[in-house]
Specification:
Layout (H helix, E strand, L loop, with lengths): L2 E7 L2 H12 L3 E6 L2 H11 L5 E5 L8 H12 L4 E4 L14 H29 L2 E8 L10 H21 L4 E8 L5 H9 L4 H11 L12 H8 L10 E4 L6
Parallel strand pairs: 1-2, 1-4, 2-3, 4-5, 5-6, 6-7
GO molecular function: oxidoreductase activity
Keywords: Oxidoreductase
Family: Belongs to the short-chain dehydrogenases/reductases (SDR) family.
Length: about 250
């Protein structure tokens, strides 16, 4: 019986990963800020014994260790860690306020780093584990209005390869999934604030992305399920691009 821990998991692609894990019979610990949404999800899946939600604001890492400890308390070990949660502020170097910079680094980089600090110890003790980082096509240099975001995603790639290199001897694998432009709730909400409807967004994306459409929230899931399965036992340090051909 595998236990999967998701940083995030109540919305977007994270939610679809969670649902796929439940279908496989895995235990899942997930996190987020909205307990109401999480509890509705748990109830809808009728999987109270296989799901644990930990309320967590990633701007503050005080609860990170408790998330880990409660997961271990319930399920004894962590087989896979999915680092999904993140924010994508629209801001160039010239426009970035300190508050925005701190928030994107806290949520996208600091929180995963300190969760890994704890999870790696457990994986090391059990001599196995799979870590999946959610990256972005912005990782190389990013669009001009995604400067801080691009830096966090590049750093996560470095962190993934660092783990792959130094922790393989403990049976721990780490891989980086480059997720392209996806119609998550967060993306749709951001565009709505900009006055762009979902229909207009899809039309715009179809003219930009080589494969002609945005990703939906299901597209990255098979790759994640492969990375956390025993089929990928010798796969580590890899980058998998699920971007519809998009490079930034």
């Amino acid at each position: 019986m595998k236990t999967v821990m998701i940083l995030g998991g109540a919305k977007g692609v994270g939610k679809e990963i969670l649902k796929s894990c439940i279908e496989k019979g895995y235990n899942v610990a997930f996190s987020g800020r909205d307990a109401t949404i999480a509890n509705q999800l748990i109830k809808s899946l009728n999987a109270e014994n296989k799901l644990y939600f930990h309320e967590l604001d990633l701007n503050n890492i005080d609860e990170i260790e408790n998330f880990y400890l409660e997961t271990i308390k319930r399920y004894k070990k962590i087989d896979s860690l999915i680092l999904y949660a993140g924010i994508t502020p629209v801001s160039s170097i010239l426009d970035t306020e300190e508050e925005v910079f701190d928030s994107v680094f806290n949520i996208n980089l600091k929180a995963p780093y300190f969760l890994l600090k704890h999870v790696l110890k457990s994986m090391k003790d059990h001599k196995s584990g799979s870590i999946v980082f959610f990256g972005s096509a912005h990782m190389d240099y990013g669009q001009i209005d995604r400067a801080a975001y691009a830096l966090t995603k590049s750093s996560l790639n470095t962190l993934s390869t660092h783990i792959a290199h130094h922790y393989a001897k403990y049976g721990i694998r780490s891989n980086y999934l480059v997720m392209g432009w996806t119609n998550t709730e967060g993306e749709l909400e951001l565009r709505k604030k900009e006055g762009v409807s979902e229909k207009d967004l899809q039309q715009k994306a179809s003219g930009i992305l080589p494969m002609g459409r945005m990703l939906n929230t299901f597209d990255p899931v098979p790759a994640v399920m492969y990375f956390i399965s025993d089929q990928s036992a010798m796969t580590t340090g890899s980058i998998m691009r699920i971007t519809g051909g998009e490079y930034i």
